From TrEMBL:
Main location: membrane
UniProt organism field: Zygosaccharomyces bailii (strain CLIB 213 / ATCC 58445 / CBS 680 / BCRC 21525 / NBRC 1098 / NCYC 1416 / NRRL Y-2227)
Family listed: Belongs to the ATG22 family.
Transmembrane segments: 33-56, 97-120, 132-150, 156-175, 212-229, 241-260, 307-330, 342-364, 376-396, 408-429, 441-464, 470-488
Protein name: Autophagy-related protein
GO cellular component assignments: vacuolar membrane
């Protein structure tokens, strides 16, 4: 009897030890997820939003000619200039060069993201997703570092390297976001507490912390970049700031190599048949992302509210992304603001974004008992003030983005908007996706997000080419934000969760 009791004690001790080990791995995965946001977000927030658009405009202006006389080189930041492309067959506004390049980069990003997302869904392991994060992160960071070494006449190479870097970031972003529901599910399963954890609340909290850390990293990058630019010989050297972004990305992603791991590795290694885990890589697996995406679209009748969400997200993401690009180029070309001033604006945006990403889901939502859906609608209303204020410049001489000081005020307003949207949108989307299909549906989320970024900058580029005045684009941006409000208001969250649960049982034959 005593031996039996000892065996039972040993079994219980082993179970307790295994539970502790599983919980430790789960918590390490969450820490690794934070490093993904901390390392890569500065590229999107600093390089994509500020530095590279300015570089693209600067390179275009240096190699451009005046609008009225194509034989006369641009000599002043106040000149209205165009850049001749393809042996001067076409001429585009120097500001449009940045917008068009961004649109092309997003188009390629979408194609690569869909392909890779299906691949990681087939493998299903954290280890494989970690490898994807590390490889594409290193490639993107290397492209950013090369950008910092270009000379002013290499504007084609600048555009090409930016396209590569932005494509890599898109893959990192989708694969990283797809890990969030997985880690939350593990925490709910293995965390032993007096009260059961709520997946909805936990998703919002972790997403908010990740967004805050991402913007926090961006803030540190911006502050150090201000010092680097100020210490440069010309005090206007944007490339030294770009170099720092690339080094930051490749260095801070390294802890993911040790933190991200499968919670139950033996389960995947010993039971391929039950998990659809491939034994080796085959090129035919690259089509799985497209097949899975098509299957998801075929089953859209079960996901009516997801379609509504993605339509609204297409519009909102397009507007907010384009607002940033248009505002930065507007500040440079119309208000003549210096590089240091623009970086300072970005710092204020980051501080506001951190506050928005942290306080909105942690304090404002609980305090006023707001659902993620309702919170997102209020944030959209808040964001629409920005383009509306820019339109006031047509009617008034002294207000409506007429002075550099107004840009600092709007940067705080915009920062709160993007911080809140980053936390709330991912949280809301995580609640309505089918379990086990996270990468595929987050790729759909990213396709919608990035796909909209093709349209917005392209349209603003057309408007700028026709008018040589970026302010006219604020009409478009304000209208888009207003239209998105009734779209999000029509989402039925309980119906969305039910549809996701039904789609979870749909198993595409090609993934067998």
């Amino acid at each position: 009897m005593s031996y039996g009791s000892q065996d039972e004690v040993r079994v219980q001790d082993r179970i307790a030890a295994d539970s502790i080990s599983l919980l430790k791995r789960t918590k390490n995965n969450v820490k690794g997820w934070y490093f993904y946001s901390f390392s890569s977000e500065p590229f999107a927030v600093s390089a994509v939003a500020i530095y590279i658009p300015l570089l693209l405009e600067q390179f275009a202006r240096t190699n451009g000619v005046t609008v009225g006389d194509h034989s006369k080189k641009c000599t002043s930041n106040q000149d209205k200039c165009v850049l001749g492309l393809f042996s001067n067959r076409i001429y585009i506004d120097t500001s449009s060069f940045a917008l068009y390049t961004f649109s092309v980069s997003v188009l390629l990003q979408i194609l690569v993201v869909i392909t890779v997302s299906g691949l990681v869904d087939v493998w299903k392991t954290v280890t494989f997703k970690r490898r994807i994060l590390m490889v594409f992160g290193a490639l993107g960071a290397f492209a950013v570092i090369l950008i910092s070494q270009l000379s002013l006449n290499q504007y084609y190479m600048l555009a090409a390297l930016y396209i590569v870097a932005n494509t890599c970031y898109g893959v990192v972003n989708v694969v990283g976001n797809s890990l969030l529901p997985r880690f939350v599910s593990d925490l709910v399963e293995y965390e032993q507490g007096s009260e059961p954890l709520s997946a909805d609340i936990l998703t919002t909290v972790i997403s908010g912390k990740g967004a805050s850390l991402g913007y926090g990293g961006s803030l540190l990058v911006q502050i150090f970049s201000m010092w680097l630019v100020n210490e440069s010989k010309t005090q206007d050297n944007i490339q030294v700031a770009v170099l720092f972004v690339g080094i930051w990305w490749i260095c801070w992603q390294s802890p993911m190599m040790w933190l991200l791991q499968d919670v139950k590795p033996a389960f995947f290694l010993n039971d391929h048949s039950s998990t659809n885990y491939p034994v080796r890589f085959e090129f035919r697996l690259l089509k799985c992302g497209w097949f899975s995406l098509l299957e998801s679209l075929k089953n859209a009748k079960l996901l009516k509210d997801m379609v509504i969400f993605l339509l609204g997200w297409f519009i909102v993401s397009d507007s907010l992304t384009t607002i940033n690009s248009a505002a930065i180029l507007f500040a440079r070309t119309e208000l003549g603001m210096s590089t240091l001033s623009l970086i300072l604006i970005s710092v204020l945006t980051m501080i506001s974004a951190i506050l928005g990403a942290f306080f909105i889901p942690h304090y404002i939502c609980p305090r006023f008992q707001l659902t993620p859906q309702r919170t997102l609608i209020y944030i959209i209303c808040w964001s629409s003030v920005i383009p509306f204020y820019g339109l006031l410049g047509f009617a008034f001489e002294n207000i409506g983005l007429k002075h550099p000081a107004e840009m600092f005020v709007m940067s705080v307003w915009y920062g709160i908007s993007i911080g809140g949207v980053a936390a709330v949108s991912r949280s809301l989307f995580s609640l309505i996706i089918p379990p086990g299909r996270e990468s595929t549906f987050f790729s759909l989320f990213s396709v919608t997000d990035k796909g909209s970024s093709i349209v917005g900058p392209m349209l603003v580029g057309f408007i700028t080419d026709e008018t040589h005045e970026i302010r006219y684009s604020f009409y478009l941006l304000f209208a888009l934000l207003v239209v998105s409000i009734p779209i999000f208001n029509s989402i039925n969250l309980s119906r969305a969760k039910k549809g996701a649960d039904e789609l979870r049982r749909v198993d595409p034959e090609a993934l067998d």
